[in-house]
Amino acid sequence: xxxxxxxxxxxxxxxxxxxxxxxxxxxxxxxxxxxxxxxxxxxxxxxxxxxxxxxxxxxxxxxxxxxxxxxxxxxxxxxxxxxxxxxxxxxxxxxxxxxxxxxxxxxxxxxxxxxxxxxxxxxxxxxxxxxxxxxxxxxxxxxxxxxxxxxxxxxxxxxxxxxxxxxxxxxxxxxxxxxxxxxxxxxxxxxxxxxxxxxxxxxxxxxxxxxxxxxxxxxxxxxxxxxxxxxxxxxxxxxxxxxxxxxxxxxxxxxxxxxxxxxxxxxxxxxxxxxxxxxxxxxxxxxxxxxxxxxxxxx
Length: 299
Known about the structure:
With 299 residues, this protein is of the alpha+beta class. Helices cover 30% and strands 29% of the residues. The protein has helices spanning 26-29, 77-85, 105-120, 155-166, 172-196, 243-257, 272-280, and strands spanning 5-8, 40-45, 48-56, 66-72, 92-98, 123-134, 148-151, 205-208, 214-223, 226-234, 263-268, 285-294. The chain has an eight-stranded mixed β-sheet with strand order 1-2-3-4-5-12-6-11. The protein has a four-stranded antiparallel β-sheet with strand order 7-8-9-10, sandwiched between helices. Helix 2 crosses helix 3 and helix 4 (155-166) runs antiparallel to helix 5. The radius of gyration is 20 Å and the shape is elongated. The two termini are 22 Å apart. The model has no long low-confidence stretch (mean pLDDT 95).
């Protein structure tokens, strides 16, 4: 067997990316995603594509922010690993899977091949996430009416709230940021992401009790794929009252009132309270996402 040839693509040969089976139906997860041809790479063995990866970033980004499409043929773990480790960008890897992938042996085997290639390339599992999608036939979630919502133009208010929210969090990305640089880094990463999103800054809202106490925040957003529940957070001293559902309901209504015909959302698999709130609000799980992050670069 010959060694795999790693090839970066451009507009002239971008069709090579499509010359690979799609058993996990990744294409369905990227119907609204635009991938740049020059951020796509393939591994070829004897002229056949045996692994492929599409790196992704925003319209104005000079470098990709993640790999969000990664496929590896059965028996080609090393080719998939070399595709990742030889890339000029060592960024987070997202593997998107059908919601029922664990119930089907063929899908589970295909997923495990991708996981093995990621690990061989020096990536480690960060978190497994549920991906949700609300559509109008589900009906809008009822607004409990317990909180008062308002826009807040001062980023410092959100920064302080995010620090307090992340002081007691189940979110794996926030915990990673805290381990690297403390609560300030975790809060700033959130702010940077939502400033990066193409949706208006004026959409960000705070939620107060009738007495005027800040209870939480919610950030309706548009990511490059469409309307999404960007962030839901309840301050620690106000937890235990079910306010996360109130925030989620308000965020959904807000996006629909601003033209959304569908709304996506996501939460870590281990965040059982938030998963229950998504289910209560009429958001079914449509896919799962496995996030790996690079922790070592193998020469």
